[in-house]
Amino acid sequence: MRIEEFDYTLPRSLIAQHPSPCRGESRLMVLGRSQGVIEHRNFGDIPDYLNSGDLLVMNNTRVLPARLIGHKETGGRVEILLVPSWNGAKGEWEALVRNAGKVKGGVRIQFGQDVYGELSGVKGGRAKITFTGGRPVEDLLREAGHIPLPPYIKREDEPLDRERYQTVIAEKDGSIAAPTAGLHFTQSMIRTLREKGVKITFITLHIGPGTFTPVKAEEVEEHRMDQEWVEITEEASEEIEETRMRGKRVIAVGTTTTRALESFSDREGRIKPGRAHVSLFIHPPYYFRAVDGLVTNFHLPKSTLIMLVSAFAGRDLILSAYQDAVKRKYHFYSYGDAMLIL
Fold this sequence. Notes:
28% strand, single chain, QueA-like, 9-stranded mixed beta sheet, 6-stranded antiparallel β-barrel, alpha/beta
C-alpha cells in the first residue's frame, strides 16, 4: 500500500494545544466495526460500552522529563531529548539533538552548575551522551528536565503538563512520550469500571523516539519501526488468558498496548509473559490475535498509528470517521479527543 492512502486533511485549529479543562471530559467517538456504525459521546460514557468480565489492558509507563537545555563552553544553547538505554546498562543515554548540524562530536555541554555531558557519534540528529558531575542524571531530570511535548504542540511545556501529560496509572519510568489514550482515564472512572465488573491489568511499553519518526518510504511495507522495550508480567498474562477462556473481550488502551500484546501473542492469542525489545509494525492487512477492542486518540496523517487503527477497523471506516470528526470539530492528537473501536 502507498503512504498516500492514509492521508487526510486536518485544519491546524483542531490540533489540541492544551489538555481538556478536566481529565476525562474529552469527547468520545465510538466505532462499531461490524456494521460501520459511528456514535458521538463523551469519554465519561465509556463504561456504557464495556461489560462485566471484559478486560482493559493499560500501559503503565511513566514519561520522563527528558528534554534538557544546556550550553556549550562557547555559550551556545543546546537542546537535547534524552532516551534511556534498555539493554541493561544503567546510565547509558542516547540523545536526540535539536539543530544537530550545529553540534559536533566531542562538544561539552553544561546542564546546571555541576553536570556536564559530552556528545559522541553525532549522526542524523542522534548521538550518544556521557554525563559527568556531582549528581545522578535522574536528579537532573527531576529538577531541570522539561516534559517532552510532541512537536505539533506549539508552545513551551508548563507546570500543568507534568500532571496532564502523564496517566493516572503511570508507574515505571522510561518513556519520552505519553501513551495518550490512557490520559483520558481518571481514578474515579477506573473505580466505576471495576465496580461494574470490568477487569483492569497493566503492561509496560516504554515509548521511544520512533513515535516522532515520520514514514518516509513511499510503500508502507518498506517502513521499519524502532525497537521499544516491553514487559508483560505473569499476572497480566494470566488475566488475559482467563478473559479469553470466559469468552470476554480484551480491550487495549492505546496503540502501544496493542503492539505490546500482539508482539507477545502466539497464533491462538495467548500472551506469554516476559521482557523484550519489540519493533512490530502493524498495518493493513493484519490479523489481530490478542485484541478485541481499542481505545485510542485521533492520529497524524500518514503515521504508523493511523495505519494501525486502519488495520484494526478498516481504512475506509477510519478515514470516514476522521472526516466526520473534522466536520464536528473534534480535537486531534495527544491532547485531543478519544475513539473507542469495538
